[in-house]
Amino acid sequence: MKSILMVHGITDTGKVFQTMANFLQNRGYKIYTIDLIPNIGTGDLKDLAQQVKQYIDSQFALEEKIILLGFSMGGLVTRYYLQRLNGIEKVEKYINISAPNNGTNLGYGLPLKGIVQMRPNSEFLRDLNSDVKETLAKIKCLIMWTPFDGMIIPANSSLLGVGKEVRLPVLIHKWMLSDKRVLEEINCFLE
Q1: pLDDT, tens digit, 9 for 90 and up, residues 130-162
Q2: Of all residues in the chain, what percent are helix, strand and coil, respectively (each to 5)?
Q3: Cβ atoms 37, 62 nearer than 8 A
Q4: Can you say whether the dihedral through the CA atoms of 42, 158, 121, 154 is positive or negative?
Q5: How far apart are alpha carbons 94 and 163 in whole angstroms?
Q6: Which pLDDT band holds residue 99 (cuts at 50, 70, 90)?
């Protein structure tokens, strides 16, 4: 049975994945979620990525390869884990959903550490994007986004130019976790 770890976005917890988790459990996957602390943008995204690393190191056997999924801010946290904490060795497939991979203009709203890191052209994103194609090319990746995203501004900031990139006309950011088209895309990618 394949294991999937789902990492949530800002102000969320693992509960945000309930619909998706049920869908994937019914298809034979073992679902794990983590509650990042703090989840409100005050913490350094690098520290949140360390929480992901510690969780993975404690929950999964050393030789076990997992599927990693990051939503919104969790997409950046999981990318830092993959690209800077050697997570690429532990992950077989990666799903990045509506993440501000190239920043969001909403990052200018508050001067909190994690939110500042999500600004376009932030030092954090410049570092991550400097080798994203070379690093993430080592595993199978699915990047999903919606042109109607009100949290990722501009919406095409979610694009990474790596793996399979899928644009779906989902009207609201959080609906990307429950829309049937998204769930089917993920199912196909995992098969």
Answers
A1: 999 999 999 999 999 999 999 999 999 999 999
A2: 45, 15, 40
A3: no
A4: negative
A5: 9
A6: very high
Output the pLDDT for position 145: 98
Beta strands in the chain (DSSP E): 3-7, 30-34, 66-71, 91-97, 140-145, 164-167
pTM: 0.98
Helix 45-59, helix 73-84: angle, nearest 10: 70
Superfamily covering domain 3-190: Alpha/Beta hydrolase fold, catalytic domain (3.40.50.1820)
Element (H, E) at 175: none
The rounded mean pLDDT for the chain is 97
- SS3 of 29-66: the string is CEEEEECCCCCCCCCCHHHHHHHHHHHHHHHCCCCCCE
Instruction: For CA atoms 100, 44, 119, 105, give the dihedral sign.
Output: positive
Q: Under a CB-based contact definition with an 8 Å cutoff, are residues 44 and 114 in contact?
A: yes
Strand, coil or helix: 148: coil
Residue 67 has a pLDDT of 98
Q: Could you give the count of Cα atoms lying within 13 Å of 33 in the half-sphere of its Cβ? A: 18
Residues listed for the chain: 191
Backbone dihedral angles phi then psi of residue 86, each to the nearest 5 degrees: 65, 20
> Rg of the chain over CA atoms, in angstroms?
15
